[in-house]
Amino acid sequence: MAYLPNSDRDRQEMLAALGLQDQRELFREIPGHLQNPRVDLPEPLSEFELGQEMRRLADANRPLSKWDCFLGAGIYSRFVPAIVRATIGRPEFYTAYTPYQAEASQGYLQTIFEFQSLVAELYDLDVANASMYDGATATAEGALLAVAHTGRERILASASLHPEILAVLTTYASGRGAELDLIPTRDGLTDTEAAERLLATGSEVAVVIAPQPNFWGLIEPTRDLVELAHRSGALALVVADPLAAAVLEPPGALGADLAASDGQQLGIPAQLGGPTVGLLACRQELVRRIPGRLVGMTKDSAGERAYCLTLQTREQHIRRERATSNICTNHALMALAATAYMAKMGEAGMREVADISYRRAHELARRLTALPGFSLVHGEAPFLWEFALSCPGDAAVLAARLAERGILAGLPLGRFDPKRSNQLLVCATETSSPAAIERYEQAVRELAQAPAAAGARS
């Protein structure tokens, strides 16, 4: 911090205001092994040499299109229509910055307004904001909205949410001073009886958060959870897969007050896991608490249609104590990609994508569970396009062997829970061709004949 023009006295006054003794205490939440790491940099290179080195490194990349991809768990291999890339590649969008001057940003503001309209329609809710960073921040911001609206400090979240969403939610709740309780699962689904008990004990709950589908791809009893939340005076937030919302009852139809999700599946490539876009929608009564930006449509002095930033309830624009969130911005370019995708595909196209994905996932599950030692972790529980596969050995070893054959077999669940080291979360989408499914089955069949290669324990 030596570059900051603060005297030692200034720094001591700031530390005292924070109740700290030493500057190092500011970084106590950062694990020690990550602080001041040693970085072994190579010798400097000329511009020509650096270009050569960067090309060498780039050549080592293997695009997702070169694999048979069955990864899911929040980032999916989906078809992106050409019109999406053509739209976001236009310079007026690609180089646009924050639309502080509405009169100079009408096209940019219109795309955000259309994004909001499409997300609200998708989730059958009244209002959607201009986007969040990703699904995790959208969920956490929705939870804090509920805390502020109800005046209650307790959050109930299903343990079947994505573990990374739960991690971000934990961080947000701790910063707000809110209490976070997890609703346990039973047979892979949120335990509604446990949810009812948790709602009846302790302090009053601000919000109940449930996924649809859940992390393991299973269809949750979301309506029951929404009704339980409302019976106790809490809000209900559904973390709803946007493509699933095209074929299942959307959150609004279930009575939910809020919906959140990641919009990566809507025209955004996997691109190393990010950036993506967060979707957040709510009922009209909650609109003044929604974080980030909200674009509205009005008329200009000539009576023509015009767009403007209607609400900007963030620290940059209003007093900190009045802000709904300190989130800085929205992912406008990624939101534009999602807008172009939804406009191109329409309701029928999104339903078709969901239907194809469903059919191919169930065909893959049928083929794999026909092999000796393989079964569905959650039995006959209904799923969409992801399923947890029980393997005869270490799932991470099996996945590594399949990767050697050009197949990204899925996510080994031992990464999140050691008790699940023999389980693989597998996903099939519309990009999972019948030939790729057949190659997957054949590769697993061949590896199963050499148990050690497939990760089987001796």
Overview of this protein structure:
The protein is of the alpha/beta class and 458 residues long. The protein is built from 12 helices and 17 strands. It has 2 domains: 65-77 and 346-448, Aspartate Aminotransferase, domain 1, CATH 3.90.1150.10; 82-341, Type I PLP-dependent aspartate aminotransferase-like (Major domain) (Aspartate Aminotransferase, domain 2, 3-Layer(aba) Sandwich), CATH 3.40.640.10. The protein has helices at 8-17, 47-59, 82-88, 91-94, 106-123, 135-150, 163-176, 192-200, 222-231, 332-369, 395-403, 434-448, and strands at residues 68-69, 127-128, 154-158, 179-183, 185-186, 189-190, 205-212, 235-240, 258-262, 278-282, 293-299, 305-312, 375-376, 386-390, 407-408, 411-412, 423-427. A 7-stranded mixed beta sheet has the order 2-10-9-8-7-3-4, with helices on both faces. The protein has a 4-stranded antiparallel beta sheet with strand order 13-14-17-16, with helices on one face. β3 (154-158), α7 (163-176) and β4 form a beta-alpha-beta unit. It is globular, with a radius of gyration of 24 Å.
Record keyword descriptors for this entry:
single chain; 458 residues; alpha/beta; Aspartate Aminotransferase, domain 1; Aspartate Aminotransferase, domain 2; 2 domains; seven-stranded mixed beta sheet; 12 helices; 17 strands
In short:
The protein is α/β, with parallel strands linked by helices. The protein has 12 helices and 17 strands.
